[in-house]
Specification:
The structure holds two protein chains of two kinds. By secondary structure, chain A is an alpha/beta fold. Chain A has a single domain, classed as Thiamin diphosphate (ThDP)-binding fold, Pyr/PP domains (Rossmann fold). Helices cover about 35% and strands about 10% of the residues of chain A. Chain A has a five-stranded parallel beta sheet with strand order 1-2-3-5-4, with helices on both faces. The longest helix of chain A is centred in the first third of the chain and has 25 residues. In chain B, the strands form three sheets. A seven-stranded mixed beta sheet of chain B has the order 3-2-4-5-7-6-12, with helices on both faces. In chain B, strands 9-11-10-13-14 form a five-stranded mixed beta sheet, with helices on both faces. Chain B is of the alpha/beta class. Chain B folds into two domains: about 170 residues, 3-Layer(aba) Sandwich (Rossmann fold); about 130 residues, Rossmann fold.
Chain lengths: ~290, ~325
């Protein structure tokens, strides 16, 4: 079992997650477009991966033995971009070019433009298949690399996810680790009791049962408890012959009170007041235009 | 006189990719449970570790191929056209064409020869779909000799390629001295009365049709276009310049495929009367190969008859609608 994180490192990781959230809000606010709820729910996991768990070299993005990350829920791109920028893959200021003409930071990740992206994604259900190919390739080439794939819970409605789930299990790809961002909301979904309520894409326990039924080793975690997230990712990399699915219990819009648990913040632009409130809640002075790199 | 028969293209596929894998350890074969039909099983027996059975899950298969390509492998993805092009089309678009990853998409059972499988397996529009996709090299070899060379070239080329392969033995178009050049069309018959443009394994039948026409005093110029994209525009314009009428012939829909490509090219570069022989906006059905060729007007005799009729109509007074529109 890998070592757990000490208190100082934990504080650094939590601050990295906070700065990812600041980058998300700034990038989307600048573009006046993009997704908010999904990147915010994923921020803690992205911080744990890029700042603690993954073996990567930001100054050598194509390092053949690196761990890989595929954002299958590609619409949360701004969250990944913020993590990459803060980790040193490119200048944090570039986050403000998100979605603009000629930018390397496309609405959905484009590996042909931005170093550090291990796959282009954006059409849901595909990233996990590519992750299988990467894991198979690393195994065939004798590389010790791990492949992490983040799926949305709504994305698990795509049939391709279950084609992939079957195949990864058949090949015993235990260096393939899927993280399902179980934030319990999708873009529109099905109506709940109240006008602004929505049913979750999957019921409690449903995802664990499904991945388990497909032969995966299933781990569950509070996706906003940094120590627990790091611990579960390290547990996941100790392979037992089965691919691993981590069901991460998260809150859509996490970190900004008025976005949390609100389906309509999947994509939405912020008013000036909302932007200021969000920045204040994230502990970031709005005078810093670069998204909190300091 | 008709052209002789060659080897079945699927046998060429299985043998050639297996041979290439012996030379290049990066080559892997992905199959969707059709290896015994596509002859990818030859590869499976020779290199079991590099043969990756994807099961009946074709969308996933194309995604796996993309992932493998990022790790330096060269995936040949193989199943029937219906399942390697049409079903996983979005995966091809997003993960392979948009990324430019080094994946070879090998569509077996192309064209009319699907072993009587009928409409679900008989894909009439793979060439229009693939040539319309930015970044996708699209090749339809004319015979076994060319298919082998196309596969060898594809293995050496870095980027996505779609290769259209026919199930059954087809006629031999080229001898061993032939050299396939990607993006280049080939004049296979010289003539001055009418230009016939063809692709894939329809070309040998068009050559036979040219021989039938010659016996009737009509000298047909035959241009074989194995690469639908990138298209050999100068060769098509030059072939059109040879005669006053162009007829395209293809084993698929006339909409957007070779007929579409030639029409687009000539209307832009050299406005010329173009007639398109092929499937006229219809799906296929179950029948023997020869019956289907007759049904859709693609046998040598039917092609010759249609071309002769078009020429006669053009030269008959009162058929002004066939006059060549001049720029």
């Amino acid at each position: 079992m890998a070592a757990t994180v000490d208190v100082a490192d934990l504080a650094c990781l939590e601050d990295a997650a906070r700065r990812i959230r600041v980058g998300v809000i700034r990038g989307v606010n600048q573009a006046k477009a993009g997704h908010l709820g999904g990147p915010l729910s994923a921020a803690d996991i992205l911080a744990a991966l890029y700042f603690q768990v993954m073996r990567i070299r930001p100054d050598e993005p194509d390092w053949p033995d690196r761990d890989r990350f595929v954002l299958s829920k590609g619409h949360s791109s701004i969250g990944l971009y913020a993590a990459l920028a803060l980790r040193g893959y490119f200048p944090v200021e570039e986050l403000l070019t998100f979605d603009s003409l000629g930018s390397r930071l496309q609405g959905h990740p484009d590996m042909t433009r931005l170093p550090g992206l291990d796959m282009s994604t954006g059409s849901l259900g595909m990233g996990i298949s590519a992750g299988i190919g990467i894991a198979l390739g690393c195994r065939l080439a004798g590389r010790d690399a791990r492949t992490f794939v983040m799926l949305g819970d709504g994305e698990c409605q795509e049939g391709e996810v279950w084609e992939a789930a079957f195949l990864a299990s058949r090949y015993g790809l235990d260096k393939l680790i899927v993280i399902v961002d179980y934030n319990k909301l999708q873009q529109y979904g099905w109506p709940g009791e109240e006008p602004d309520d929505r049913l979750p894409p999957a019921w409690p326990g449903e995802l664990a049962a499904k991945w388990s039924a497909f032969g995966w080793r299933v781990l569950e975690v509070d996706g906003h408890d940094m120590a627990a997230v790091v611990r579960v990712l390290e547990q996941a990399t100790a392979g037992d012959g089965r691919p691993v699915a981590i069901i991460a219990d998260t809150i859509k819009g996490r970190g900004v009170s008025f976005m949390e648990g609100r389906y309509y913040w999947h994509t939405r632009t912020l008013t000036a007041d909302e932007f200021a409130t969000a920045m204040a809640e994230l502990g970031e002075p709005v005078t810093n235009p670069a998204g909190g790199a300091a | 006189m008709t052209l002789p028969m060659g080897r079945a293209m699927r046998d060429v596929f299985g043998q050639t990719v297996t041979e290439l894998a012996g030379l290049d350890p990066r080559i892997v074969m992905l199959d969707a449970d059709t290896a015994s039909s596509t002859k990818a099983d030859i590869f499976a027996k020779a290199y079991p570790d590099r043969f990756l059975e994807m099961g009946l899950a074709e969308q996933n298969m194309l995604g796996v191929a993309a992932g493998l390509a990022t790790t330096g492998f060269v995936p040949f993805v193989s199943t029937f056209v219906a399942f390697v092009v049409v079903r996983p089309l979005d995966q091809i678009r997003v993960l392979i064409a948009q990324t430019g990853l080094n994946v070879k998409i090998c569509g077996g059972y192309a064209g009319l020869f699907t072993g009587v499988a009928g409409k679900t397996h008989l894909i009439v529009d793979d060439l229009p779909i693939m040539r319309a996709m930015p970044g996708m090299v699209t090749v339809a070899p004319g015979d076994d000799v060319e298919a082998e060379q196309v596969l060898r070239w594809a293995a050496s080329y870095k980027g996505p390629v779609y290769i259209r392969l026919v199930r059954d033995a087809t006629q031999r178009l080229f001898d061993e001295t032939y050299v396939f050049a990607p993006g280049r069309a080939v004049v296979v018959r010289d003539g001055g009365d009418v230009t016939l443009v063809s692709t894939g394994t329809q070309t040998p039948r068009v050559v036979d049709a040219a021989d039938l026409l010659a016996a009737r005093g009509i000298a047909a110029h035959v241009l074989h276009v194995p690469t639908l994209k990138p298209l050999d525009v100068p060769a098509i314009v030059a072939a059109a310049d040879r005669t006053r009428m162009v007829v395209t012939v293809e084993e698929g829909t006339v909409i957007g495929g070779l007929g579409g490509a030639v029409s687009e090219t000539l209307s832009e570069h050299r406005p010329t009367l173009v007639k398109r022989i092929g499937l006229q906006d219809v799906y296929g059905e179950s029948a023997s190969n020869s019956e289907l060729l007759e049904l859709y007007g693609l046998s040598a005799a039917r092609v010759a008859d249609q071309v002769q009729a078009l020429l006669e109509a053009r030269t008959t007074p009162g058929h002004a609608s066939h006059a060549i529109p001049l720029p």
